[in-house]
Write the structure tokens for this entry.
Amino acid sequence: MKILIFAGGPVRKLDAFVEAAKKLNIELTVASFSEVTYESGDKYRLFAGEHDIADFSLIYFRVVGKRIEDATLVANYAKEHGIRLVDKLYVSSLLLPSSISKAAETAKLISAGIPMPKTIYGSLEYLSKVAPQELGLPFIIKSTTGKKAREVWIVEDVGALRATPLQEGLYSELRDMEKAGIRFFAQEFVKASMRYRVFVLGGEVVATLAQPTKWRKRFNQDELEKGLVSQPTSEMGDLAIRATDAAGLDISGVDILKVDETGELMVIEANAAPSWKLVEKYTGKNMAEEILKFLISNY
């Protein structure tokens, strides 16, 4: 039996288990939740340091602490792979739904094969080492809190995410946030001038709105129009519905990028509580009424 024990803080707090495992001749690995990582790719895999968590037969959460997002990722992964989890409450209780945790939401999208910008999840230390090599420069850093795109940064310098003698600038800001329990993931910088918010209700597209992207001026100086897309492509609508299903949602606003050069569509997130104000403005629909009618008809 291969056992994995997690601590919410430094792994040295698990030294007693390491010594006991040697004495009992038990195959044991210990890890901190800060070592939990994943990357987008053909197959979703969750790691604790260098170890694929799927390789273990039992996982024990010694202490979770502020690492609730990481614990949620591990608990979901353990359930998917039939790994026993201790304590039992982590099996029967929902730790943190993907509607709150962007880390869990993104993991679901990757697992379902939804096309996305290349994505890496992990500690700031891990991202500072891996992201420049895997994603190139510049790349995007996002917090997992999903606060209406306010916690999104562009990284142009390898040293921006590493400690300096004075710890000034972006590193200091993000490190303080990480100490408070906030987690981050990195994504490749996609040259897409427009972002499309596709509103999905009960498996149907209600409306699609277009908005110029935040850093488009880096590669496109044209003035771009925003507003209602009168005839969105079926490909975009189908992708939004697939992303909504993958995230386990009935009502969502799916953000999709369209790559300028290739026309490729990439999902960047599926929002569980999108604002409907612009939909009502452009379509004249009363979305509160539409949602209530959906709820009555389906639940």
